[in-house]
Amino acid sequence: MPIIRLREITDMDSKERSKKLSELRAELSRLRTMISAGGAVENPARIRELRRAIARIMTIENQERNKPAKTEKQAKESKQVKAEKTEKVEKPSKKPAKAKTKEKKTE
Asked: What is the pLDDT of residue 105?
């Protein structure tokens, strides 16, 4: 079971996500320190869960940061382009192929 679900991440605002990200990174660092010191970790699968949760949060953050803000003009233009693309385009009719006849070679 994941530590944090995608829906929970998308419902958070940016500050909450960064706070959760720092908490998860701290826990991951603590677990890695325990392993490198030679200690046994209670739940080794937790490391994988933490890494994935961190990646999910970072992915959502990057998507939000790189999301282009469309203006009304851009939205209208994109709708027009989509409408033009979906209009039926007439294809030129194909001419029937001529039957090829074999010519006998004379020597």
From this structure: 65
